[in-house]
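Support request, please re-run this one:
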Amino acid sequence: MRYLTIILFAACMALTAGVARADKRVAFVVGNGTYKNVAALPNPPIDARSMAAALRNVGFEVVEGTNLTRDKMTEKLLDFGKKAEGADVALFFYAGHGIAVNGTNYLVPVDADLKSEMDVRLGGAINVDLTLDQTMGDAKVKLVFLDACRDNPFTAKIRSAKATRSVNVQNGLAEMKSGEGTLIAFATGPGQTALDGEAGANSPFTRALLANVTQPGVEIQQAMTKVRAQVNEETQKGQLPWGHTNLTGSVYLNGAPAPAATGAAAPAPVAVAAAPASDVELEFWRSIKDSNKPEELNAYLSSYPSGQFRSLALARIASLENGSSIATRNLSNGIDPATFSEESSQATEDQIGLDKGQRRDVQRRLNGLGFDTRVTGRFDEPTRSVITRWQAARGYPRTGYLNKLQHKALLTEIVPVTSTASAGSEEARPRRRRGGGGGGGGGRRHGPHGGPGGLIGGMMGGMFR
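Re-run finished. Output below.
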């Protein structure tokens, strides 16, 4: 009865209150690793998928790609530029090879064969300065993250070219200055090279970004200070991210903190990447924030999939379903402790040997646990995002892929009695002819929004008031 009352209350309030306009947030996220003319980089595609999922979880529309050729990168950039027109926040993330020639930085597509300065400057690579100016120039706030300072095999090729011996081709990327309203961050200092990290995992820089920049109530420049400290510590002072900022106000990717009860009011942030909660949403959240019923918290998530209190609701659901700590879950569910430390990847998931029916079972269980995804039997990018969210809620390494221990743990979780097919699944809707084209982008943009991996830790103590 209480659940129905909440829904009716929200519906009535919605008739008398306007819907709060969400800020326009657009991101370009690309990871290039499978290079055709030099050795492959294992981690950039993983970095890109992880970053895209985290940004979608805080309300960004993401133009995403992995292992893109020059033509495909151009297509994605044109799409991003159109979407970023008039954006409140535009974010650019690239992981892969980059190169600096005569002080100008270039991003390297997977089909590039760079043997001379001419190859670089006449279309073989992507000019960073020109790209940012053309795609993000109209945005109010511009955030640029370049995990492209890896040791680059193209550098030696260009230096050895007879016609270009005097060309200045440096290791890493060249220093860049940010314009007004812009933050630029490199994985390491100008002219230096960064670590790629262990195969099948995120690079140190991307891992630190994921852990800090989407934390609730953390201002972006404070987050970058934490990113530098984390990378410096993880690499034993072997790598220190570098940045240049010309922001004119505070920027939050996951909501500004509540104002202090006393003292002079702080100036309003010039750009906040999460829309403030409407009166309707606030009343809805207050009515269920202390609830011990996951279905009531899920009702909030259904009504406000990108709501101000989404992360708190997800953490509350995880606490109710799984206990308040990893130790409690180990004791109550008999889960192997190694589940919480063993990494997973495409290879570990392939070892499980899931057929299409078993993949549907995984998707059904995720739905039953409140991690909504379509039941298709395919682990597409929206499903990977949901698996990552489930892993984050359980304290497992966040990769979007399963291993045998995690799969076993998922099968042991108690799922509330629900219908066997999600309302959004292919099984629950009539079959229809499929037209050609239109594949990835639209489906990804309308996929489920999951809680970012780094939001669960540290939220349980004192945040539900």
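The longest strand covers residues 25-31. The radius of gyration is 23 Å.
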